[in-house]
Amino acid sequence: MGRTELTVLVTGGTSGIGRAVAEALATKGCTVLATGRNPDRLELAERIPGVRYLRLDLADPAGPDSLAEELGDLGLLDSIDVLVNNAGESQSGPFEELPAEAIERLFRTNVFGPVRLSQLVLPGMRARRRGRIIMVGSMLASFPLAHRSSYSAAKAALRAFATAARQELSPFGVWVSTVEPGSIATGIGLRRTKYLEEGSPYTQDVTTMLEHLDANERGGIPAEKVAATIVDAIVAPRPREFYSVGSRAPLPFLLKRALPRELVSKIVAAQHGLKR
């Protein structure tokens, strides 16, 4: 946006990528509002100086509207310059065995919540004819992986919302971008929700995939590198529609265009110990 004295709302701002974004923007002099499911539990040493913490549980259908009401009471809702939709749930499990309620919660958290929150801050951005909305996706949206179907689908849906919304909003000076990280060393594997029935015929496959996935994430790029890409999208006069970072990007996307789709899927599977 050509300036850094911005009011920024970062969801999932208490850990990982969200925390790194909040810290980077606070250092630049932005007014930063960071959300978490339980921000009151943060110790003083865990809080970033100058950052205001607010509660938001995206798994709660009323969560975004409750946050918007609080922001309105604080006189901040219509002054949000940038929304970074970072909060989300990582989920794994065989397609056949994923509980319906787990899929529904994942989509509330990773898709419906960010979409609703974006809708709530847009009137202020559109009225001022400037704004940024950053959707933090995943390279699994572009390269789906076995036993990660729900997560891949949710991130792909979020990217589609962002791409279409960008076309609608750019005439008003509001730019929507998607950032797709690859493997990131944030410890998210420890928080991933996992579904696997006892005696499942998929047990060996799932175990192998998770072992490789967790190893890739432990060796992934730091959250700060993703945060730097997000900051670039925020301050650029005309941000790109799509950014990828980590996992040797942009090479995988070049190969995706050059190779047959089924071959790309086999390569993705092989990288996670699966033979297809």
Automatic annotation (TrEMBL):
This is Short-chain dehydrogenase/reductase SDR. InterPro entries: KR_dom, NAD(P)-bd_dom_sf, Sc_DH/Rdtase_CS, SDR_fam. It comes from the Bacteria. The keyword Oxidoreductase applies. One of its GO terms (cellular component) is membrane. Keywords: Oxidoreductase. Residues 6-187 form the Ketoreductase domain. Belongs to the short-chain dehydrogenases/reductases (SDR) family. One of its GO terms (molecular function) is oxidoreductase activity.
